[in-house]
Amino acid sequence: MLDPNAVEVPPVVPEAPIDAGVQDVGALYMEYRDLLLHVACRKFRVPDPDAENLMQEVFLAYMQTEARVENTKAWLVAAMCNASRHYWRQSSRVEQMPEEIGEHSDPGSHSLADDFALSLTLRKAIRYLQPKCRETLYLHYYEGRSATDVAREMDTTSRYAEKLIHNCLKRVREIYFSITSLKR
Predict the structure, then answer these.
(1) What's residue 18's pLDDT?
(2) How big is the chain by its Cα radius of gyration, in Å?
(3) 123 near 116, Cβ under 8 Å?
(4) What is the DSSP letter of 103?
């Protein structure tokens, strides 16, 4: 049994020695920092803030590598060269916006008013059609069905559905031209 008067003593945990590899990385960072920045900034023309980020990624990769590195300086320089090349490959995929972007408009919006007017006019023309023509054109043009599918939907022959599509389209054109007063 446990003695109720006994004072509990926390177990003594020896301090873990600081990993020599972590100390080495700090020393390596200070030793090769200028060289790696020079490689990225001067040889590969990477901007300074991005070069600093690349260097940190290189040291992270160095700490994570499980392979034995025999020539640390060569490994770090090669890794920095590869990281700089990768930086430019990634950057080339992204195109920066021009400085005067605020002065430009969306090319798709140039004809927005015309497109909207056309859409309203076509809706109005379609409203003038008989319900059977409206349904035929809807099935064929909006749903993308073939004449055979339209015939099946309307319970008629394929040839009649083709004729119906043709005549309804001809009729909606006539209505459209009469609404817009455009003569062919």
Answers:
(1) 42
(2) 37
(3) no
(4) G
- Positions of the chain with pLDDT under 70: 1-23, 182-184
Amino acid (one-letter) located at 27: A
CA distance 41 to 47: 6
Residue 12 DSSP class: P
CA nearest 173: which of 163, 164, 183?
Answer: 183
CB 133 within 8 A of CB 164: yes
Token couple for 46: 């990477």
Count the neighbouring beta carbons within 10 Å of the beta carbon of residue 39: 24
| In-domain check, residue 36 | yes
pTM higher than 0.70:
no
In a domain? residue 116? no
Pair (30, 80) in one structural domain: yes
